[in-house]
Amino acid sequence: MKYFFTKLFSILTEHDKKFLFILIFISIIISFIEMIGVGAILPFISISSNFSAIHSSAYLQHIYIFFHFKNDIHFVVVAGIGLLIFYFTRSALNMGYFYLLAKFSKGRYHLIAYRLFENYLGMSYRSFIDKNSADLSKAIINEAQNMTNLISGLLLMLSEIFVVIFIYAIMLYINWKITLLISAILVVNAFLLIMTVSRAIKKAGISREEHQKKFFEIIHSSLGNFKMMKLTSNTEIVLKKFEDASTGYAQANIRNETLAHFPRLFLEALGFGIIICMVIYIIYKYKSDISGALAIISMFVLGLYRLMPSANRILSGYNQILFYKSSLDIIHNDLMYDAEKLQKNPIVFDKTLMLDHIHFEYNEDKLILKNISLSIQKGDKVAFIGESGSGKSTLVDLIIGLYRPKSGSITVDGVVLDEKNIKSWRSKIGYIPQSIYLFDGTVAQNVAFGKPINKTQIKNALRQANILEFLEINHEGMNTIVGEGGIKLSGGQRQRIAIARALYGNPEILVLDEATSALDTDSESKIMEEIYKISEDKTLIVIAHRLSTIRGCKKIFSINNSQINLNEKP
Predict the structure, then answer these.
(1) pLDDT tens track for 316-345
(2) Number of C-alpha atoms within 13 angstroms, CB side, residue 382?
(3) Which of 32, 209, 211, 261 is most exposed, with the fewest beta carbons within 10 Å of its own?
(4) CA–CA distance from 502 to each of 463, 489, 513, 540 (Å)?
């Protein structure tokens, strides 16, 4: 339990912790009011059934004289009206308290989801490639929501614990023997519930998380490869996997929902059973009716009537925590990722980019690149070639600042590339990937890609990419909807929009990561001719398989067996 609270408090902000302690303080006040509500009914029943009790109590007699009541009936009526006002006020205060509970627990969804998304965006590229994007989506969408359910269960437990303590104190004061006997019965039964029902709910929670993970992975992979799904016609296999995951997830929730009601039903039956046993015991012992013990029985009936729901809520809150505990583990682990702490110190590239004795590895003792040294002058047209898996893309990722070398240094005009200036360096780079992702929006939105939209600059970028005229004649210009993944456009058109995206903002360095490998030779030739023309005043870095792609490059670096060789064209 200590580990649970350590994880929880590491996720909550300082403001959240203060709010939580305020809620606990309010819950103590509310619990005290609940105690008064239970305790006040016994005196009222006593004076209602026997007016002489008003004058036999020094406290009640003092109130009677102070307010100048005319008769006993008047006193009892006023006391009853006072109790009515008290109970309605108590309900209003409880309503306000439950609003604060909901505000705290459900309001954490936004904060937790935002912090997760912020952390994912802030993680290093190296950390990101080790993650499954379906898991990241699940954490933001579902686990953050489940986390609010866990917090709600915890607050429910805390609020009811104080109610139980205060009501229990009143019952002890009235008759400690009966109270202890009832307590022993409740504790034994609560232990049995925890050992059986709670364990089953915990297992259901683990099953929920496992099946939900598969659920997201299947959806993500299937919809992301929809064309292949249609071509291969293997939907039956995928649907069977989806059915298994979906059914498992549903069954876990069914078990949780069903078992969640068991403590309430069991405790209600137990409470009524205790009252009936008390009545039978009194009748059997005193060989008479219960009129003499009516006030005490009424008090215990009311106490148990209020105590049982509290005990049920405590158990329900505990079971809710068990069911969603895996969400706490997932969120805690994902928030513990160290985000890149990058600064915005400017860096200038006027002369030379240099790599000096660079080593890099993905896994321990498995070097991908060994002792790489090279230099690129501003304005150079540079190509990296090599077999698939040789490390050429990794090397370029090092150059553009996505990876950090294991050893060695990268300098720009003699300044070491590090966390202080990497943002400035990345902003100078226009990147055209092999796999182009266009989201479901306009051409302008896809070109700007999160940056402020400047229509003049977007048109200029589309014009340079040689696609503006086509869009204006055949579609709606920069307002053309591309569809998810750019499905409404051809491969060549998507490629040109990717080029426009790279050019937007006028970068100093243009990087093509096998960007034309999916195109036919003629299309590739046209696009590369345009790229060479566009990059006349820029530094161009090309990763390619085809030699035809790199005919305009003056420096060609070939990578083989983690080593690099340079061929310069005259």
Answers:
(1) 888 888 888 888 888 888 887 767 778 888
(2) 24
(3) 261
(4) 13, 18, 12, 12
- 120-127 long-range contacts, CB within 8 A, separation 24+: 120/334, 122/339, 122/340, 123/337, 123/338, 123/339, 123/340, 124/340, 124/404, 125/397, 125/402, 125/403, 126/362, 126/402, 126/403, 126/404, 127/337
In the block, tokens 């498995």 appear at: 366
Angstrom distance (rounded) from CA 209 to CA 391: 37
CA 9 to CA 403: how far, in whole Å? 33
State whether the Cα torsion 71-75-78-80 is positive or negative. negative
C-alpha distances in angstroms, 423 versus 320, 322, 405? 44, 43, 17
Mean pLDDT of the chain: 81
Range(s) within the chain of domains with CATH label 1.20.1560.10: 2-335
The CATH class for the domain spanning 352-568 reads alpha beta
What CATH topology corresponds to 2-335? ABC transporter transmembrane region fold (1.20.1560)
Is 233 exposed, middle or buried (CB count within 10 Å of its CB: 0-12, 13-18, 19+)?
Answer: exposed
The residues, ordered by sequence, that sit 6+ positions from 39 with a Cβ below 8 Å of its Cβ are 170
Cα 358 to Cα 356: distance, rounded to the nearest angstrom: 6
Lowest mean pLDDT among 94-98, 185-189, 245-249: 185-189
Cα end-to-end distance, the chain, whole Å: 71
Q: In whole angstroms, give the CA distance from residue 369 to residue 367.
A: 6
Instruction: Write out pLDDT tens, residues 366-398.
Output: 778 888 899 999 999 998 888 877 888 888 889
Structure tokens at 254: 């069914």
Where do the H-state alpha helices sit in 361-518?
392-399, 422-426, 443-448, 455-464, 468-474, 491-503
Displacement of CA 376 from its chain's centroid (Å) = 43
Q: Edge-to-edge strands of the sheet including 415-416? A: 366-377, 352-363, 407-412, 415-416
| pLDDT given for residue 297 in this prediction | 66
Contacts of 206 (CB under 8 A, 6+ apart): 326
- Mean pLDDT throughout 18-40? 82
Q: How many residues does the chain have?
A: 570
Please, where in the chain does CATH 3.40.50.300 lie? 352-568
